[in-house]
Design brief:
Largest sheet: none
Helix content: over 70%
Structural class: mainly alpha
Number of helices: 14
CATH topology: Na+/H+ antiporter like fold
CATH architecture: Up-down Bundle
Radius of gyration: 19 Å
Number of strands: 0
Distance between the termini: 26 Å
Amino acid sequence: MHRFRSYVLPLAIVLGLLFHHSLTYVREVTPWLIFSILLLNNVAVDMKKLKVTMLDVWIMLFQIVVSLGSYFLFKAFGASEVVAQGVLAGVLCPVAASSVVIATILGANRETVTTYTIVGNLMVSVVAPIYFSFIGTLQEVPFFESMWMIFRRVAPTIALPFFVALFLQRFAPRVNAFLCRYKGFSFYLWALALTITLGQTIDFMFLNGKEEKASILILGIASIVYCAIQFAVGKWLGSKYGDRVAGGQLLGQKNSAMGIWIANTYLLPLASVFTALYSIWQNLFNSWQMWRKDQETSTSRKPA
């Protein structure tokens, strides 16, 4: 199965497109999949090595500044509100909870990725309500109520697996060791979660995007550009702090399900198209990265 993993994500995209309507009926499974993915990762992490570094700070600053700056820049150049909001949500969108799956396959440090998965998601739960107090459709919602809405969405899938793993490492080491043996399954759980998420989003686009073709086209182009920028800047930042792969994945790989929920809850629903299309580009890029990694590994194993 190892040699076929670079084809799993494109297959998930195709299945999401073909069965988009049917997949909307199983969307409640996604949080459980993400919980399982993070638990399998966290049991393999040395919790004592988790610490916030300057790499985390710079990535957070990028998301905070560039998301809001892009919103006003697009508005200044006459873009529609839905396009500006789409870019805002897409850049501010937290790192994918399962980014550790791809990052570790590509050679990133597991503790580095795990740390920002927690910190980055908590940052969004604080910053997003501030932005949405003057942008979006729910500006009248009090700050703390808005923050609680997002935190309540984040906590079960981010914090709970962390504390469960912490408990197992401390009080049930045999159970922890048993789960560690199956951490490789997290990749395939992520592919399943991706299929369901993409299916829901594609179904939304079919139902609601017929009259907004121009906006969808602009959002599609912007999503490709920002995907390239964020992976490139992330890799550049990562190289400054000793983990180029981690930097690229932490800034470039987004939690599309969370981004879509944010757009649908606080912004114009069609703004979620940016994050939906971004998810396709990021996963195609991840597939290419894994294919290249597998090729390099195969070449290094060949006898001279």
